[in-house]
Amino acid sequence: MKKLLLLFTIGIFGLGCSQQTPKVLKTSFSKEALRQTLEDEEGKNITVKEILDQHKGKVLMIDFWAGWCRDCLNAFPKAKELEKNNPNVDFVFFSLERSKEGFHKSLERFEMKDKENYWFSSGWKNDFNNYIDLNWIPRYIIIDQKSAIAKYYAISPEDPEIQSTINNLLQ
Predict the structure, then answer these.
(1) In a structure prediction context, what are the per-residue pLDDT tens digits for the chain, which is 171 residues long?
(2) What are the residue boundaries of the Thioredoxin domain, all occurrences included (predicted)?
(3) Contacts with 56 (C-beta within 8 Å, 6 or more apart), sequence order
(4) Which of 15, 63, 108, 115 is 20 to 30 A from 52 via CA?
């Protein structure tokens, strides 16, 4: 009976975690995804396209995170190291905090105020996150100098493909 209960418990909790590499690794964004709005730290709305346009001509790393996410917090030291070791790459941070207050508290608590931060006021489920198959955080996406997706799916800053993709783009 204990084994059956254990298997049932694992099955229930296992269904809630859907950390799976998407079947299709996309290389561009849909028009709907690009129209998705986020809020900057001052509460001003900005679209994903406007963010990408601000970084056109540069390699861009998008880091999806939240202060409530244990995996995100565990990844912070390596993510900061990745940023430090790649001064020619722009880094932006897309927050999945549950509230505007939580967004601001996390920026303070985790010393993120000196970074380029945006918050999905629409929540986790929105046109952009649905399009990129966001099923886990942290998540990292690398955008090339022409705003195309160069590395679609990474869930650790230690993924060796992140650095190799950056190196290839900066050659």
Answers:
(1) 544 444 443 343 333 345 677 788 899 999 999 999 999 999 999 999 999 999 999 999 999 999 999 999 999 999 999 999 999 999 999 999 999 999 999 999 999 999 999 999 999 999 999 999 999 999 999 999 999 999 999 999 999 999 999 999 999
(2) 27-171
(3) 145, 146, 147
(4) 108
> Residue 55's Cα: distance from chain center in Å?
16
If residue 152 lies in a helix (H) or strand (E), which one and from where to where? strand 149-154
Single-letter amino acid code for the residue at 114: D
What is the C-alpha separation between 52 and 148, in angstroms, rounded? 9
- Give φ, ψ of 159 to 5 degrees: -60, 115
Hey, what domains does the chain have and what are their CATH numbers?
A: 24-169 (3.40.30.10)
Give yes or no for a contact between 170 and 58, defined as CB atoms under 8 angstroms apart: no
d(C-alpha 29, C-alpha 127), whole Å: 10
Task: Give the other-Cβ count within 10 Å of 132's Cβ.
Answer: 21
The reported pTM is 0.87
Amino acid found at 130: N
Query: How far is residue 146 CA from its own chain's centroid?
Result: 19
Cα dihedral 55/84/71/60 (nearest 10): 10
